[in-house]
Specification:
TIM Barrel; Lyase, Ornithine Decarboxylase, Chain A, domain 1; 9-stranded mixed sheet; 12 helices; 29% helix; alpha/beta; binds ligand LLP; 8-stranded parallel beta barrel
């Protein structure tokens, strides 16, 4: 996280002290670094130089319009999984012609919206979806660009909730079914077969599962070619992990280098759908310690962020690094459970952390740029946090903090 560094014992986002942001915007507050987002996106682009490619940022990881617009300005494509994400990409200035539409449950309305927008490709995940998309396209007198998502039955060796490429997972179609589906699709007048897609999971920390999946998908592409069905692009999905603690995931360059070696001279456009590896380490969550209490031997630091802001620890037992924003030179070091105000024992941000902190101190949860705000909720009628984007010495309000009025506005009591 080189864009979030300590200077004089204080944590900064680029050139801005995080204490200043907390004073101005309050906490909990998500802070993103434009430079970090750009750097990660460029790592992919640079590694792909000289190879026909499309990097489609997975919007689900962080869908704030400011984040999307930073990437859109760099020419990024986008991987979406809903009509809502399509609306966001368009609002952020993204090019619909560089959008691919993934997901197991696309609705007919979403298919129409995506065809209206002129997206690059639909990643189709089932026989029924293929038929529905064909019908929708025929009604509109167009051909929908299609890729079929195969499930290569490869173990991504990640948390079971975010593993997607095993045959017991709901995603994609088996290699055998894919063969039949391609044959079928090649005869459907409303479809134009352009690609083959595969995404085996998230937070992968080694290259091997990617290569195992690649080997299987290339075999299928070759078999299809022998039958006269030629595929123009291969989408290897997202999934590259990041360092939260002591993981040692490969850098984008390493992954792409290995993939390009296997691809060799094949005339395939390489499509990628990275989410986490672009934005996780481009963000932190600021939170104040509101109360320190002990229950017997146990010390709790109750902070003003909670599982509604950051559900990863509760949902995936994820370890997120938490550091004081300003070194506290007078507090003694103790072991704390960092917990939020929500009425659940699962409401923790970190457990058994050694920290020198007092009431009122400001903490930063690191690596909070991906799957944190995007998965937040209003549980316990808590307003969702404010989000800001730092650009050098400038701070841009990316999303204002919600108010109770915002929350209540959608509901109607009985008279
Ligand atoms: N493409 C598809 C089809 C996906 O399902 C996903 C993520 C991605 C791309 C992006 O994967 P990434 O590069 O971000 O790993 N909430 C979980 C992660 C869920 C991932 C879901 N799919 C977490 O906080 O760990």
């Amino acid at each position: 996280m080189e864009n979030f560094t300590f200077k004089n014992n204080q944590l900064f986002a680029e050139a801005v002290a995080l204490t200043r942001i907390a004073e101005e915007f309050g906490t909990p507050c998500f802070v993103y670094s434009r430079a970090a987002l750009e750097q990660q996106y460029r790592a992919y682009e640079e590694a792909l130089a000289g190879c026909s490619h499309l990097v489609c940022y997975a919007v689900k990881a962080n869908s704030n319009l400011a984040v999307l617009s930073v990437l859109a300005k760099l020419g990024s494509g986008f991987d979406i999984v809903s009509g809502g994400e399509l609306a966001r990409v368009i609002a952020a200035g993204g090019d619909p012609a560089r959008v691919i539409f993934s997901g197991v449950g696309k609705t007919i309305e979403e298919m129409h919206a995506a065809l209206d927008a002129g997206i690059h490709c639909f990643n189709v995940e089932s026989p029924l979806e293929l038929e529905q998309l064909n019908d929708v396209a025929m009604q509109r007198n167009v051909r929908a660009p299609v890729s079929i998502r195969v499930n290569p039955d490869v173990d991504a060796k990640t948390h079971p909730y975010i593993s997607t490429g095993l045959k017991e997972n709901k995603f994609g179609v088996s290699m055998e079914d894919a063969r039949l589906l391609y044959r079928q699709a090649s005869t459907m007048a409303g479809l134009e077969l352009i690609g083959l897609d595969c995404h085996i999971g998230s937070q992968l920390t080694s290259i091997e599962p990617f290569l195992a999946a690649l080997e299987r998908t290339l075999l299928l592409i070759d078999e299809l070619a022998a039958e006269g069905i030629s595929i123009r692009h291969l989408d290897i999905g997202g999934g590259l992990g990041v360092q939260y603690r002591d993981e040692t995931p490969p850098a984008p360059q390493e992954l792409i280098h290995a993939v390009r070696q296997v691809l060799g001279e094949r005339p395939l456009t390489l499509v990628l759908e990275p989410g986490r590896s672009i934005c996780a380490n481009a963000g932190v969550l600021l939170t104040h310690v509101n109360n320190i209490k002990t229950n017997g031997e146990h010390r709790f630091a109750i902070v003003d962020a909670a599982m509604n802001d950051i559900i990863r620890p509760a949902l995936y037992q994820a370890w997120m690094d938490v550091v004081p924003v300003k070194v506290n030179e007078t507090a003694a070091v103790h072991t704390y459970d960092l917990v939020g105000p929500i009425c659940e024992t699962g409401d923790f941000i970190g457990r058994q952390r050694e920290l020198a902190i007092d009431n009122g101190d400001l903490l930063a949860v690191r690596s909070a740029g991906a799957y944190c705000f995007a998965m937040s909720s209003n549980y316990n009628t808590r307003n969702r946090a404010v989000e800001v984007l730092v650009d050098g010495d400038q701070v841009h309000l990316a999303r204002r903090r919600e108010t109770y009025e915002d929350q209540l506005a959608l509901e109607n009591p009985l008279d």
